[in-house]
């Protein structure tokens, strides 16, 4: 089982057998409210009819088309619909099958772009401490989660990391963006001075770091990264695998923070989590560098058997239609205040040392037990599951990201379940 306490799971497995709207059904017939949109992906809720129907219809009509040297209309249509909702300036799309693949694709596009422009000395990639960019070698190299890196050898060379912006002593219990830490963006200038800009291809950050515990940047931080990267001819990549498709109450994190990167990495919510698919958006400048660059770039030597798969494309189109019809890409903004107040009502509950929120995402950080990291949060997870609520934990942090269709009363229910779970911890 991936990212699972396997020994514990083997003793008492937890199984879902069905799902509809906000709820899962367990193998023993219990209803469980989905407090995490699956894994931050089922933004429109489960078993949405339009998506279910589109998948069946597409499977009967055109089940598969080769991704190389052949096209099919649905993939192009989906690319256009993604561009319609993306920030101005990001207008070309490459399809992948996951967030991890989207990350690798983005890193390779960045390196190949500089080469196409005759600037092949730009080989360095800059990530961030506590960043999560999936599990493939590029992603764990630019990522900054120690447990995901330490067992896997030397990783990519030529990688450096910015510091993260999480600062408990200064920013605990901030509502929305924390006040302190904007100056940490200037660490990029230090890295540029150390390596020289002419060796740096790209900087990759999550607008809001999700899997590492919902770390929200201070106001102005991403703008500053944008200024510094632009000044030095370095590409800025936003990994929007979590923040994309409405999670922050805007279509993308780039919209929330009003900063447009050169490359945007997406997946998860693109198909409502129903079919594996990712999409990498790039600027016209990057696209044009490949289309008009040296002859050896006549092909972009990268791609997957299932890139732009017809059934995934149909699911993506139906998902984006559902988001549009139901206003889900901005619903997080409508619920943000209720969500924030509900989450912060947990201040003062046992073990809670910080609460963070933005859009329809939240985190509750617990005081770690020395030598037993994750223990308290995992115990809360098990208790919430017993009560009929799915929450997620990462280390000593409880992360919440319900489907964007959640009602205000369900928000109250979910937070009360977390309150009970916190009180149940030994
Ligand atoms: N990037 C980010 C920011 C993510 O949150 C995730 C998944 N949580 C990934 C990449 C990897 O996505 P996947 O699991 O689909 O490979």
UniProtKB/TrEMBL annotation:
Cofactor: pyridoxal 5'-phosphate
GO molecular function, one term: pyridoxal phosphate binding
Keyword Cell membrane: no
CDD domains found in the cross-reference section: OAT_like
EC number: 2.6.1.18
InterPro entries reported for this sequence: Aminotrans_3 (IPR005814), Aminotrans_3_PPA_site (IPR049704), PyrdxlP-dep_Trfase (IPR015424), PyrdxlP-dep_Trfase_major (IPR015421), PyrdxlP-dep_Trfase_small (IPR015422)
Family per record: Belongs to the class-III pyridoxal-phosphate-dependent aminotransferase family.
Gene Ontology biological-process annotations: biotin biosynthetic process
Name of protein: Omega-amino acid--pyruvate aminotransferase
Pfam families, alphabetized: Aminotran_3
Keywords, comma-separated and alphabetical: Aminotransferase, Pyridoxal phosphate, Pyruvate, Transferase
Enzyme superclass (EC): transferase
Organism: Devosia equisanguinis
């Amino acid at each position: 089982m991936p990212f699972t306490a396997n020994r514990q799971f083997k003793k008492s497995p937890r199984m879902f057998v069905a799902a509809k709207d906000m709820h899962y059904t367990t193998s023993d017939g219990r209803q469980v409210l989905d407090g995490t949109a699956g894994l931050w992906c089922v933004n429109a809720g489960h078993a949405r009819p339009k998506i279910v129907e589109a998948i069946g219809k597409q499977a009967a009509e055109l089940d598969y088309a080769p991704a190389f040297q052949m096209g099919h209309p649905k993939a192009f249509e989906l690319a256009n619909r993604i561009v319609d909702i993306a920030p101005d300036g990001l207008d070309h799309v490459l399809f992948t099958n996951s967030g991890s693949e989207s990350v690798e694709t983005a890193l390779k596009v960045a390196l190949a772009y500089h080469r196409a422009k005759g600037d092949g000395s730009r080989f360095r990639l800059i990530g961030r401490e506590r960043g999560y960019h999936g599990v493939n070698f590029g992603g764990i190299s630019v990522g900054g989660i120690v447990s995901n890196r330490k067992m896997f050898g030397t990783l990519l060379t030529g990688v450096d990391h910015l510091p993260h912006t999480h600062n408990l002593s200064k920013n605990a219990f901030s509502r929305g963006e924390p006040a302190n830490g904007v100056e940490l963006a200037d660490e990029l200038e230090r890295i540029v001075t150390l390596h020289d800009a002419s060796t740096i291809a790209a900087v990759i950050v999550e607008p809001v770091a999700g899997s590492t515990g919902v770390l929200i940047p201070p106001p102005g931080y991403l703008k500053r990264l944008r200024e510094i990267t632009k000044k030095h001819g370095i590409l800025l990549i936003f990994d929007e695998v979590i923040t994309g498709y409405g999670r922050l109450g805007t279509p993308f994190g780039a919209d929330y923070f009003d900063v447009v990167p050169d490359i945007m990495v997406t997946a998860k919510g693109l198909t409502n989590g129903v079919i594996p698919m990712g999409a990498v958006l790039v600027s016209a400048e990057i696209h044009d560098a490949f289309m008009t660059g040296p002859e050896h770039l006549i092909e972009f030597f990268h791609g997957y058997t299932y890139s732009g798969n017809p059934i995934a494309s149909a699911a993506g189109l139906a998902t984006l239609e559902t988001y549009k019809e139901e206003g889900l890409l901005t619903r997080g903004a409508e619920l943000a205040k209720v969500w924030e107040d509900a989450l912060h009502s947990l201040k003062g509950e046992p073990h809670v040392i910080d609460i963070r929120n933005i859009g329809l995402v939240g985190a509750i950080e617990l005081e770690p037990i020395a030598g037993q990291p994750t223990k308290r949060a995992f115990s809360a997870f098990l208790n919430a599951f017993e009560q009929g609520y799915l929450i997620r934990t990462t280390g000593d942090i409880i992360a919440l990201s319900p489907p964007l269709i959640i009602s205000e009363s369900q928000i109250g229910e979910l937070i009360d379940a977390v309150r009970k779970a916190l009180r149940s911890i030994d």
